Amino acid sequence: MRPSILICSLLSGLACASVTPQNARPRTVGPFKRESLGSKWPYAPFSTKGRDIVNSRGDVVTWAGVNWPMSGETMIPEGLEWKSAADILDDVAGVGFNYIRMGYAIQMIDEIYDRKGRDVPMIDALTAALGRTNGTRVAKAIVSKNPNWTTRTTRFEIWSDIASTALKKGIFIQPDVHVSKAQWCCSHVDGNAWFEDVSFPVQNWLRGLSYVATWAKKHPNIVSMSLRNELRESWNRTNLYYNWDTLVGNMTAGTDAIHAANSDLLITWSGMQYDQDLSALTTGKNILTAPVSHYWSPSLLGLFT
Ligand SMILES: *[C@@H]1O[C@H](CO)[C@@H](O)[C@H](O)[C@H]1NC(C)=O
Ligand SMILES: *[C@@H]1O[C@H](CO)[C@@H](O)[C@H](O)[C@H]1NC(C)=O
Ligand SMILES: *[C@@H]1O[C@H](CO)[C@@H](O)[C@H](O)[C@H]1NC(C)=O
Ligand SMILES: *[C@@H]1O[C@H](CO)[C@@H](O)[C@H](O)[C@H]1NC(C)=O
């Protein structure tokens, strides 16, 4: 199955367009198939129909949500030293949200490969990022708020626990590659701007997408993934091709990596220029010749994550 692709500008939270790959056929889901695919909430898999996201029953699904960062140097979801995961999720549901976009770093998966498949315990992640004193202090605080974890609970165990708790509360989780090298995002000089930038090797990105898509199979409330946050021109490597053709080529490779691992996920794309520019798509221009905007006002940099 190859669902259509949803292209969204997450900055505006509004602009979305659905694109059906040329060789895709309309999904035909008979009653038996539908039962076996998803007979209970969230009725996965999801796909697109015109401007809408629909579940396997054809019902329009509306996502309203919030970003929960976990792409900083610790690569652990932020705020858990102040509140339990369950309480944070109650806060999210309490204002009527049903969706959380969790921005992660590809470095998190690279480290698992470097460690021959073993994930990084919370205490090691925190001390590497914050130093021994603060790392130990924050680890203890996280465990005191979240008593069914220990300081040896790993990053993906924490993420899985959050996803499972979110499922019970009717909240979707969308994994989103925020950066490759874990750090605050985003700028033209952070090494994470564009495919093959200083800290953005494409092969590691594809491997990371595949890993997370496989992990997501354990979590029924993960029905979608996004490919990359706020693509933009690199000012460090100026010999890269910053154009729509390169964006579509690499994003198609990312989509294929996800679908080879887990074909049921709906995939969101973002545009150029910090995801502000969807022009080639909305004007239907030829991607080889469509204009690309290069302008960015540094005064706005602080506004976006
Ligand atoms: C530890 O954290 C405090 C803030 O909570 C900060 O002021 C201090 O500089 C940190 N220490 C180190 C060694 O990073
Ligand atoms: C936390 O507890 C829940 C059950 O209440 C369990 O499913 C989950 O695996 C636990 N998480 C960890 C990291 O031990
Ligand atoms: C990119 O270039 C800027 C300006 O020369 C420099 O400050 C920055 O460290 C570079 N970034 C990387 C990831 O090398
Ligand atoms: C991905 O981006 C890089 C860097 O711009 C480019 O060299 C490469 O051709 C792109 N790959 C595809 C499949 O378009």
Explain what you see:
The chain is α/β, with parallel strands linked by helices and 305 residues long. The chain has one domain: TIM Barrel. 33% of the residues lie in helices and 14% in strands. It has helices at 31-37, 85-94, 107-114, 122-130, 132-145, 155-168, 202-216, 244-261, 279-283, and strands at residues 5-8, 16-19, 47-49, 52-54, 60-61, 65-69, 99-105, 172-179, 224-226, 266-269. The strands form 3 sheets. The chain has a 4-stranded mixed sheet with strand order 2-1-10-9, with helices on one face. The longest helix has 18 residues, at 244-261. It is globular. Mean pLDDT is 86; it is low at 1-36 and 296-305. The structure holds 2-acetamido-2-deoxy-beta-D-glucopyranose (4 copies). Residues 148-149, 153, 157, 161, 164 line the site of one 2-acetamido-2-deoxy-beta-D-glucopyranose.
Structural class: alpha/beta
The CATH superfamily title: Glycosidases
What would CATH call the class? Answer: Alpha Beta
Q: Assembly state here? A: single chain
Helix content: 25-40%
Q: Let me know the number of strands.
A: 10
**Physical arrangement of strands within the biggest beta sheet:** 2-1-10-9
Shape, per Cα inertia axes: globular
The termini sit apart by: 33 Å
Main sheet, how many strands, which sense, barrel?
A: 4 strands, mixed
Q: What is the number of domains?
A: 1
Q: What's the number of helices?
A: 9
> Mean of residue pLDDT?
86
Cofactors, ions and other ligands in the entry: 2-acetamido-2-deoxy-beta-D-glucopyranose
The CATH architecture name reads: Alpha-Beta Barrel
User: How much of the polypeptide forms β-strand, as a percent range?
Assistant: 5-15%
Listing every helix as H and every strand as E from the N terminus to the C terminus, the arrangement reads: EEHEEEEHEHHHHEHEHEH
Annotated CATH topology: TIM Barrel
